[in-house]
Amino acid sequence: MKYVLSFICLAISLAGCKTTTPAGGKTDSKTWVVTLMDKQANPITADGSKLTLKLNDDHVVTGFDGCNEFTGKFQTDKNTITFSGFLSTQRACPDNKLSALYMDLLTRSNGYSITQSKLILFINKKAVLEFGPQNGI
């Protein structure tokens, strides 16, 4: 009985801990908004739309690239992430440079870090995309 109580106390104390890196591939299934992309702060489209990303627990990624909605798959392992199989709507947008850059950076991302208030994607250990939660923390 003493061991069971000790284990429960340990479990409760660890449950409150936060991590700055992924633990077991947990991705927090929330919608993220791009706050920094390739050194550009708060990129938005001409009509004021924000770029978004959602990493679902079933390894499906969805989002908005500034022109089109997209979906795909992702895999995580500790601090690494890979995206694949992107599909998107096919809206014709007058200037899709922002969309093209966003999708290129997502596709090439190979590392990540996540906390309650920030998601960072890396390419070869260089931060290329930073996100904040869509509706605050």
Can you tell me the overall shape? globular
- Mean pLDDT metric: 82
E-strand count? 9
Second-tier CATH architecture? Beta Barrel
3D architecture notes:
This protein is 19% helix and 39% strand. By secondary structure, it is α+β, with helices and mostly antiparallel strands. The protein has one domain (22-133): Lipocalin (Beta Barrel). Strands 1, 2, 3, 4, 5, 6, 7, 8 and 9 form a nine-stranded antiparallel sheet that branches. A hairpin with a 2-residue loop joins strand 8 and strand 9 (126-133). The N and C termini lie far apart (39 Å). Residues 1-25 have low confidence and may be disordered.
Indicate the topology.
Layout lengths: L1 H14 L15 E7 L2 E2 L10 E4 L4 E5 L4 E9 L2 E9 L8 H12 L2 E4 L4 E5 L2 E8 L4
Antiparallel strand pairs: 1-2, 1-3, 1-9, 3-4, 4-5, 5-6, 7-8, 8-9
Observed structural traits:
single chain; alpha+beta; Lipocalin; 2 helices
How would you sum up this structure in a few lines?
The chain contains 2 helices and 9 strands. It has 137 residues and is of the alpha+beta class.
